[in-house]
Write a structure and sequence with these properties.
Blueprint lengths: L1 E2 L23 E2 L34 H25 L9 E5 L6 E2 L2 E2 L5 E4 L4 E5 H11 L2 H19 L6 H22 L2 E2 L4 H11 L17 H14 L8
Helix pairs in contact: 1-3, 3-4, 4-6, 5-6
């Protein structure tokens, strides 16, 4: 995935009243494993980074490339959402910090220690935190497009907080964040801020398949994020149709 100088985006959060809220607690992003449980085999999220035999042949192997992709994804997300808030006549506040961590409990959100193999948006501190070993492992297994999805999904949780969006069930919050991540990426491709490399769409699909709930997970359970099929459908609905498809207004 290649970044470009961003042109002025075409779409906005038209007609949406933005409520800046100071929410307590954590919004756990859609790429988390339950605390104390190791990820199942063959899914991104193993404790060790993949070896050469597991690494994509697209050159996305180094930690330096991963860090650059995180920085690029953050910058594009900030410009994307700032333009949409501005078009609605509202002031935009970027997410305060993005924090990598490596150990259980190294970072806390609202008094709750964050486990490994996780990425979250913390509304209490207005930051995104991610397990760097888990994330680099997923980057190497799936590809660089996964990093842009990961940041896009967690950034969407920050936007939900800024818009005062609260749902009764976590699955509603998570599928909307997937749609918003898709819109940010699709609109950025259409505006020229991002250029897709060969295989990037397949990487999005593979990453979404990897982070779906287990088949036996009840949709109404706390922490449910949606099946692989639901998450893929939500993401590509936003990717193809922009924010109008995400139920923001």
């Amino acid at each position: 995935m290649t970044t470009r100088v961003e042109r002025r985006p075409r779409s906005a959060l038209a007609g949406l009243a933005v409520a800046l809220v100071a929410a307590a607690g954590c919004v756990v992003g859609g790429v988390a494993e339950p605390e104390g449980q190791e990820p199942p085999p063959n899914r991104p999220g193993g404790e060790a980074s993949p070896g050469a035999g597991q690494t994509r042949a697209d050159g996305t192997t180094s930690v330096e490339e991963f860090q650059q992709d995180v920085a690029d994804a953050r910058g594009i997300a900030e410009r994307y959402w700032a333009a949409r808030f501005r078009a609605s006549g509202e002031r935009f506040r970027p997410i305060r910090r993005i924090i990598p961590y490596q150990r259980d409990g190294e970072v806390s959100c609202g008094g709750q220690a964050l486990p490994r193999n996780n990425a979250v948006y913390c509304s209490a501190g207005d930051f995104i935190a991610y397990d760097v070993n888990w994330s680099v492992g997923a980057f190497r297994q799936v590809g660089d497009a996964f990093v842009f999805y990961l940041l896009g999904h967690e950034y969407a949780h920050g936007i939900q907080t800024r818009l005062g969006i609260r749902y009764s069930y976590t699955i509603q919050q998570e599928l909307q964040a997937d749609c918003m991540a898709g819109a940010y990426l699709g609109d950025s491709v259409r505006s020229g801020a991002l250029t897709l490399d060969d295989g990037d769409l397949a990487e999005f699909r593979e990453g979404l398949l990897a982070v779906g709930d287990d088949p036996g997970q009840p949709w109404f359970a706390e922490g449910s994020h949606g099946t692989a099929e639901q998450r893929t459908e939500s993401f590509f609905r936003g990717y193809e149709r922009s924010l109008d498809a995400c139920g923001l207004g």
